[in-house]
Amino acid sequence: MQKPSIPKGTRDFDATEMARRNYIFDTIRSVYALYGFRQIETPAMENLSTLMGKYGEEGDKLLYRILNSGDFKAEVSADDYNEKTAAQLASRFCEKGLRYDLTVPFARFVVQHRDKLQMPFKRFQIQPVWRADRPQKGRYREFYQCDADVVGSDSLLNEVELVQIMDEVFTRFGIRVSIKINNRKILAGIAEMIGAADAITDIAVAIDKLDKIGLDKVNDELRERGLSDEQVARLQPIIALSGTNAEKLQTMSQLLAQTESGAKGCEEIAFVLGALQDAEGRSLLHNEVDFDLTLARGLNYYTGCIFEVKALDVAMGSITGGGRYDNLTGIFGMPGLSGVGISFGADRIYDVLCQLDLYPATATTNTQLLFINFGATEAAHCLRLAIQTRRAGIPTEVYPDSTKMKKQMSYANAAGVPFVALVGENEMQAGTIALKNMQTGEQQNVTIDEAIALIQGK
Amino acid sequence: MQKPSIPKGTRDFDATEMARRNYIFDTIRSVYALYGFRQIETPAMENLSTLMGKYGEEGDKLLYRILNSGDFKAEVSADDYNEKTAAQLASRFCEKGLRYDLTVPFARFVVQHRDKLQMPFKRFQIQPVWRADRPQKGRYREFYQCDADVVGSDSLLNEVELVQIMDEVFTRFGIRVSIKINNRKILAGIAEMIGAADAITDIAVAIDKLDKIGLDKVNDELRERGLSDEQVARLQPIIALSGTNAEKLQTMSQLLAQTESGAKGCEEIAFVLGALQDAEGRSLLHNEVDFDLTLARGLNYYTGCIFEVKALDVAMGSITGGGRYDNLTGIFGMPGLSGVGISFGADRIYDVLCQLDLYPATATTNTQLLFINFGATEAAHCLRLAIQTRRAGIPTEVYPDSTKMKKQMSYANAAGVPFVALVGENEMQAGTIALKNMQTGEQQNVTIDEAIALIQGK
């Protein structure tokens, strides 16, 4: 019989991976909650009418569709079947699809429950999403997203708090990061200034290569992308932008003073950066915030501040991102609801924590004490001792079978159990346990209360 | 535009529901971990070859199938389409399906990763499953299961620990329960004794009605179900079985002494019940364990001890169940692996906790402190104070907009925030905050450190 397997692009998570993933999710969850975000969950399946057309044409193709239950065939004649394309048939055979991201279900949630929601509504959501993407290294067909959004408030204080949240989460992880911030209105202002509204992404992409390919080649690329010599010339001070955030902001404010949108964008960035300092101008954060003009994520969607986080000590793409959008729920007939949100990339954070070896010991081990099984009588006795260690909060196992000592010890080793208790006839009579520290190899006869104190490091 | 909705039988969970559900899952997770069970997760999608044929004919119909991505039509001609049944076509159009339970994916996991797993393998898994069942009150198409299993050990100590886990979980919830235990071998012994191997379920169902319909009607029903007068006569001492667990067990041991399987079942129950007592025969549990002959769940699957938990103070079906099985992984070509497991019914436990009003305060509230927003300057100041309260672990919000006081207070009320901080110009200058206790209405001017102490109840 063939060994069973799982679908391409999906993963099993074993106990070690789960402990690490839980550490990541629990950390993010705690910080979200500390800032007053409240968790919601939505169903894995949404109506396709909710999902279709929300992710572009390419996105529609990547939606997983659920075949209608029962006689799905009754709806489509053989002639119809022959004439229709696969995409058209899919819409007839399927009413439901799997969640593709957390944003559209959140928008649907807000509109559906609008009467019950208190605005501003601060929600977070940590759930898997599914995409029929081509699997490749680091890209999966099932992966978790960890989103937080505030909707129903235009205040920039929300942006400030989201930056604080990113800072706090990565500080807790021990990952040194750079938090990049930009503003869609600044990018619009630049485009307006040089008269090239459509070229924003091209410009950002080209500028981003400055460090790698140098100024001349950046300018070449801009011309190749269709900008005139004059437009490229006017971009020079922007491409050459450098200095502290304050310096860069000052330059940009001057350059974009004539464009309404650019001026507004600079003001917004100034407010957010200002609020992240104390009254004396000292940063309130653990990590650096970097005003970065080359940041240009998801332009069609975002309308104000945009964020991205990169790890400093590992070569890895963006590990967190987000920004402000103006019209989350318009697609569902509820216009004018502005919001701002971020999303942590759990899979990439997982890899960064692995590469930097930053998982705390608590995230990699579970059972703290294993009672060796010397036979029925001893095991019954150990079972009662285990009640006491568990009551003290110590994850405890009693080896269920009275097999060879060697096998039991190798089980303890494989599971990384730090303490093993050997309770044979002598110990039972003496009312003690022989407690072995698996790391030091040291073994001592102690009472159960002493053992508890030793294991708890008291 | 029509208000968007979600598929029938699925649910959104709002912040309050999520807090409660997390309380349930976290409690179960903690207890599983305390007993050395380690968490795994498997993908939502499994290959249909893994799922099909594992849940009976009816189960196959209830599987959600995922339409193949891309040109699924290319595989099936119009003629084929015309000739095949919907079920046959489904197998051509779909390779993957959604997880229907956690047991089959677990079996698949064990076989797939057998080379890496240390036996005995104690795993728990808390994930949603999907069934295309007819939705009705308390039955959903997406719901969570919370399973723990030990495989690779025949020891009855595993059964003992699972009973302890059930006892501990419901004790933590504050739900008084009866933990029912029976053994498939005892039921087989009864059938053997009266020569009616197929009638086990019928017998168990009929006996279960004793309290409701009385002995005569139970006997009538047994005859209706095809038992002879002699068989019914031989069942009388079993139907009339009463007394303590020890008394019932003694009677059954005598009655079934001649059947190998019955004698073995009684021995097993005796061992498990014995290990749940201390050396003086006092129960080590908080709840009662009830040896109950009428318990007969999932006979085809279970082979040894079986368990079921019922709440004592609420009329509700079984809220937890499980048992021993002999051949979990045989379906995937790995025979002879015995295991024992339990599954908590999270949705029913949710309802029980609601009905008995047993949720702790921590499971229903989140933000502990809201700073009222009196304007940009004050808000910037509050943002810095919030850093301190959050550092002290207090979930804190700063209201993002400087809207009317009334609106901000009603936000605090709706979110159940226990403390509100009012920091205007005067307080800023004095370096204090006006802290209002929303429950008592009491308001006092305090320093931030004093506020932290007050909120933490110190």
Structure commentary:
- The structure is a homodimer of 458-residue chains.
- By secondary structure, the first copy, chain A, is α+β, with helices and mostly antiparallel strands.
- Helices cover 42% and strands 18% of the residues of chain A.
- The first copy, chain A, is built from 18 helices and 16 strands.
- The first copy, chain A, has an eight-stranded mixed sheet with strand order 1-5-6-11-10-9-7-8. Chain A has a five-stranded mixed sheet with strand order 13-12-14-15-16. Chain A has a three-stranded antiparallel sheet with strand order 2-4-3.
- Chains A and B meet through helix 1, strand 1, strand 2, strand 3 and helix 4 of A and helix 1, strand 1, strand 2, strand 3 and helix 4 of B.
Chart the SSEs and their pairings.
Two copies of one chain form a homodimer.
Chain A: H1 15-34, E1 38-39, E2 45-47, H2 48-51, H3 56-61, E3 65-67, H4 78-83, H5 86-93, E4 94-98, H6 103-112, E5 121-130, E6 142-151, H7 157-173, E7 177-183, H8 184-194, H9 200-208, H10 210-224, H11 229-239, H12 245-255, H13 260-275, E8 288-291, E9 305-311, E10 320-325, E11 339-344, H14 346-355, E12 369-371, H15 376-391, E13 396-398, H16 405-414, E14 419-422, H17 425-430, E15 433-437, E16 443-446, H18 448-455
Parallel strand pairs in A: 1-5, 7-8, 12-13, 12-14
Antiparallel strand pairs in A: 2-4, 3-4, 5-6, 6-11, 7-9, 9-10, 10-11, 14-15, 15-16
Descriptors:
42% helix, homodimer, eight-stranded mixed sheet, alpha+beta, five-stranded mixed sheet, 458 residues
